[in-house]
TrEMBL record:
Residues 407-637 form the Sieve element occlusion C-terminal domain. GO terms for biological process: phloem development. It comes from Gossypium lobatum. InterPro entries: SEO_C, SEO_N, SEOA. This is Protein SIEVE ELEMENT OCCLUSION B-like. Pfam families: SEO_C, SEO_N. Residues 15-252 form the Sieve element occlusion N-terminal domain. It comes from the Eukaryota.
Length: 639
């Protein structure tokens, strides 16, 4: 799991430090036994050293496993530790089992840490930490022992196959950064343990009155330091448990648990970050648009600004790039993947090849992923609450949280199609005009000559009416370079206002597409739903060839719309409806003109988003209400 350095803190760190210290001290009941844990610490240090998790170590460990240097190194203190292990071995075994079992459950790591501290409640502080570290070393060492020996020892090979160790080693290069991070954390844990042991070994006659206060202050930090060191062991153990493939099961109910704890999501961010939270799985291939990433980024960052801490974040977002893992990435695709992950501040899969093939198949067959990105929503128990929330996110952003079907339906019941709903927060200038009750033309199309003619005619009609009118160019769906050129010309010639940039134009249209998709999923994309009809009209305007279209609105309540030629004719016939402006208002006067002067012929082309097998069998024309003929369109534009 990769994320920007905005910083993720473990959930418990946000609570009161004093309360945490009281909880730790409540399970500290030493019985006065004296124990020298330095020999045990030596063994632990050797285990963790020989099992160093780096990409190079995986290749070289065979040499370490067959050498005798390690055995000879241990003989100096082996006899001194035998009696101690007779006393501690059972306890170490219990704790290692607790770590292996609990780190893979959805229980809070805080509770597991406190459970381990309770097991060592009778021991002094330094012994608590070294005993816990010994239990961690048992699990950690067993894993790497298999990694080192499975190629030369048949028993180790069979065990390694069961734990999927060979598959992990195949990805050793891609996992190197994770191994390096684990190594750094283990080094820090060892440093703390050695520091604590050395601190205890300071002769009492060295602790003079002038340093006694400093020693006491240092001791005050020991309980919390031990607590977080054990938490770090659990976080690392969780990664090792995932690497060993012990959780590579798959169902629609536990997919995020699989991906959060297996190699699919990586390193050392505690699984607590995803546990007990709504998780949004952003699923796409490498063709995800930069516009999509930019808008998702804004939505994601807004959710963070609206919450005061990690615990209050309404959801976590995880990108799963879905590619066939049996096909290696080319250098170009690898670069595309790296560039995409560099722009994402949410969690991402470490590499597309890490996505389990069973998960790959499940995503395509059960969730219907094809080419366009989808967002699958999982509740805190890992259950799917929405198979694709991306339309909700485009339409309402974080207002749709927790992104359930029920929430989607509730939002539509409270919604009406107004000018401010169409524009949303895409352009603050337009929202300001709406609040000021100005007359606003939204217009689109790609023919620059029609744009020049339309904007000139609107300005002429505005002067004739004595009414100020604002105009905003919203381009066309899937904007290409020609729309960018149009925007440059419009701004240079001061023909009208434009949406801020090409991404804003894309977002304007993807929201309208998403409105149709959302209505269709809820079973309300029919001729009896007024919002659906308005959406389909706008989509048919955009899908038409040739001239553009326009929508005139005032404030947030009223608007009328027509194709470009119809609107130009209407504005040119100003004298036919001018008198009605005084009694009906400009928008109503123009709307009545359209009703009274219908075009003799029309040829509407409605291009609906989606795939052929998921589109409605019957669609009615937004103008004449007759059933439209159905065609399947294949379109490619490499502009």
């Amino acid at each position: 799991m990769q994320q920007s350095d905005r910083g993720i803190r473990l959930s418990f760190s946000t609570s009161n430090d004093g309360l945490m210290l009281k909880q730790i001290q409540a399970v500290h009941v030493p019985d006065g036994r004296a124990i020298d844990v330095r020999p045990l610490l030596h063994i632990v240090e050797d285990i963790l050293s020989f099992a160093a998790p780096s990409g190079d170590a995986i290749v070289e460990t065979g040499k370490q496993a067959t050498g005798t240097e390690a055995f000879q190194h241990q003989t100096n203190y082996q006899t001194n530790i035998t009696d101690m292990l007779e006393t501690l071995s059972f306890l170490i075994d219990r704790i290692s089992i607790e770590m292996a079992r609990k780190c893979s459950e959805t229980r809070e790591e805080h509770a597991t840490t406190m459970s381990i501290l309770s097991m060592v409640s009778n021991y002094p502080w330094d012994a608590k930490l070294v005993i816990a570290l010994s239990a961690f070393a048992v699990n950690y060492g067993e894993f790497w022992l298999l990694a080192q020996c499975y190629t030369s020892n048949q028993l180790a090979k069979n065990l390694a196959i069961l734990k999927q160790v060979p598959g992990i080693l195949q990805h050793s290069t891609m996992l190197k950064s994770r191994f390096d991070t684990i190594k750094d954390l283990i080094t820090a844990m060892l440093d703390i343990a050695k520091c604590l042991v050395e601190f205890k070994e300071i002769p009492s006659n060295y602790v003079t009155e002038d340093v006694a206060a400093a020693v006491s202050a240092a001791m005050d930090h020991v309980p919390v330091a031990i607590y977080w060191t054990i938490r770090s062991m659990l976080a690392t153990a969780s990664q090792i448990t995932g690497l060993s493939g012990s959780e590579n099961e798959l169902s629609s109910h536990n997919l995020y648990a699989v991906d959060a704890k297996s190699p699919n999501l990586a390193p050392l961010v505690s699984v607590d970050v995803l546990r007990k939270r709504n998780v949004l799985l952003l699923i796409s291939d490498l063709d995800i648009l930069q516009d999509e990433v930019v808008i998702l980024q804004q939505i994601y960052e807004e959710s963070r600004r609206q919450s005061n801490s990690l615990d209050q974040n309404p959801y976590e977002l995880v990108w799963l790039p879905v590619l066939d893992s049996s096909v290696s990435l080319s250098k170009i695709k690898q670069r595309i993947f790296e560039n995409l992950t560099a722009t994402m501040t949410w969690f991402t899969l470490g590499h597309p090849s890490l996505l389990n093939r069973a998960v790959f198949k499940f995503i395509k067959e059960e969730w219907g992923f094809e080419q366009k990105p989808i967002v699958v929503v999982l509740d805190p128990q890992g259950r799917v609450t929405c198979s694709n929330a991306i339309h909700m996110m485009w339409i309402w952003g974080n207002l749709a949280s927790p992104f359930t079907i029920a929430k989607e339906d509730a939002l539509w019941k409270a919604e009406t199609l107004t000018l401010d709903f169409l524009v949303d927060g895409i352009d603050p200038v337009i929202l300001k005009w709406i609040s000021e009750e100005r007359f606003i033309f939204l217009y689109g199309g790609e023919d620059i000559e029609w744009i020049r003619n339309f904007t000139h005619t609107v300005k002429t009609a505005a002067r004739a009416c004595g009414i100020a009118m604002e105009m905003v160019y919203v381009g066309k769906r899937n904007p290409k370079e020609n729309i960018r050129r149009n925007m440059a010309i419009i701004n240079e010639e001061k023909l009208s206002h434009c949406l801020p940039d090409i991404t804003a134009i894309w977002y304007f249209w993807i929201r309208i597409e998403s409105m149709w998709n959302s209505k269709h999923r809820l079973g309300k994309a029919d001729e009896n739903d007024p919002i659906t009809q308005e959406i389909m009209t706008l989509l048919s305007y955009d899908g038409g060839e040739g001239y553009g279209w326009a929508l005139l609105g005032k404030g947030s309540t009223e608007f009328t719309k027509a194709r470009g030629t119809t609107f130009l004719t209407c504005l040119s016939d100003y004298n036919l409806w001018a008198e009605d402006v005084q009694t009906k208002g400009l928008v109503s006067a123009i709307h009545d003109y359209f009703l009274q002067n219908p075009t003799p012929h029309h040829c509407n082309r409605l291009v609906l988003p989606g795939t052929a097998d998921r589109l409605p069998e019957m669609v009615t024309c937004s103008e004449c209400r007759r059933t439209m003929e159905r065609y399947i369109l294949y379109h490619c534009c490499d502009e």
